[in-house]
């Protein structure tokens, strides 16, 4: 029996398989594959089958990325008119370019004025967010004396925070930042990095950095490359391996700030077009107007049809 319910999916079993594969790539060459991974992958397949069977009981589904919407239609075989892609959004009035604020943030946390480049990380400092990859890549990058002016600001908390601190004075672990300070954090960066090993959803940190006018670098999962980093003009992607991440970081170091400014402007334009909280809220409002028999047709307007005359 179909329920008159709208389900919003920020991750489902099919996407967790990609996450498991990415996590396995972080193993050391001689490290045995854990038995738990074999068990987990086997159970995932049955989980996907179960989801395919019961997802059809919901009347409508909201996907937060283009890739997730495609999976719901093609793999979960849901009718296209019952799958709606509504991208996550952030407050682009709060997260916006503000160079003076960024300069103050750098000064407050001890980043020297002559720093050649500042990377940033934010979120939970745990394994599934890709911090083992970033840790190993930074060890190799910072060994090069030519990179002595490279600094990394790490906003967040977790077991990898202590390890980052052990890399030396160029890695500044700031701990969790309240929202007011996050705006300064993004503006203090040259490039924001999200090395996540989780394929699900659409991470708000990427959207906040883009709204702040910063180029972004992230793992090349389909949800990210399909909706966020759709081309080199807004940022960089890498495979979930230390070597691939190191190559991307080295490329950034070679490009210089003039390139970052251009990519950051393109990133900001894309965020303003697609990833604002106002657009997200309007999309949800329109969806529920579409589903409401009382409002579905208002003055001849069918809210289930897109675009409306007012969208032109």
TrEMBL record:
InterPro entries cross-referenced by the UniProt entry: Glyco_trans_4-like_N
Pfam families to which the protein is assigned, alphabetical: Glyco_trans_1_4, Glyco_transf_4
Gene3D superfamilies from the UniProt entry: Glycogen Phosphorylase B
Domain Glycosyltransferase subfamily 4-like N-terminal: 3-91
Protein name: Glycosyltransferase subfamily 4-like N-terminal domain-containing protein
UniProt organism field: Amborella trichopoda
């Amino acid at each position: 029996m179909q329920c008159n319910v709208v389900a919003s999916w920020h991750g489902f079993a099919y996407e967790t398989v990609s996450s498991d594969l990415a996590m396995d790539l972080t193993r050391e060459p001689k490290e045995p594959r854990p038995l738990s991974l074999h068990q987990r992958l086997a159970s995932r397949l049955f989980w996907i089958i179960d989801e395919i069977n019961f997802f059809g009981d919901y009347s409508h589904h909201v996907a937060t990325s283009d890739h997730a919407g495609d999976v719901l239609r093609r793999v979960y075989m849901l009718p296209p008119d019952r799958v709606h892609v509504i991208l996550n959004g952030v407050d682009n009035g709060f997260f916006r370019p503000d160079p003076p604020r960024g300069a103050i943030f750098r000064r407050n946390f001890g980043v020297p004025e002559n720093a050649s480049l500042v990377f940033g990380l934010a979120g939970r400092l745990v394994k599934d967010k890709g911090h083992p990859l970033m840790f190993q890549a930074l060890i190799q990058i910072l060994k090069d004396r030519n990179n002595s002016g490279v600094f990394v600001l790490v906003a967040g908390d977790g077991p990898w925070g202590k390890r980052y601190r052990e890399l030396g004075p160029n890695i500044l672990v700031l701990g969790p930042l309240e929202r007011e300070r996050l705006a300064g954090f993004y503006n203090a960066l040259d490039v924001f990095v999200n090395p996540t090993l989780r394929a699900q959803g659409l991470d708000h940190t990427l959207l906040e950095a883009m709204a702040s006018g910063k180029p972004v670098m992230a793992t090349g999962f389909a949800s990210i490359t399909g909706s966020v980093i759709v081309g080199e003009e807004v940022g960089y992607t890498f495979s979930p391996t230390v070597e691939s991440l190191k190559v991307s970081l080295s490329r950034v170091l070679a490009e210089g700030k003039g390139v970052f400014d251009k990519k950051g402007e393109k990133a900001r334009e894309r965020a303003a077009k697609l990833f604002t909280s106002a657009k997200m809220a309007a999309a949800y409002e329109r969806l529920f107007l579409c589903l409401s028999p009382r409002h579905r047709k208002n003055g001849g307007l069918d809210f289930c049809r897109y675009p409306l005359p007012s969208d032109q």
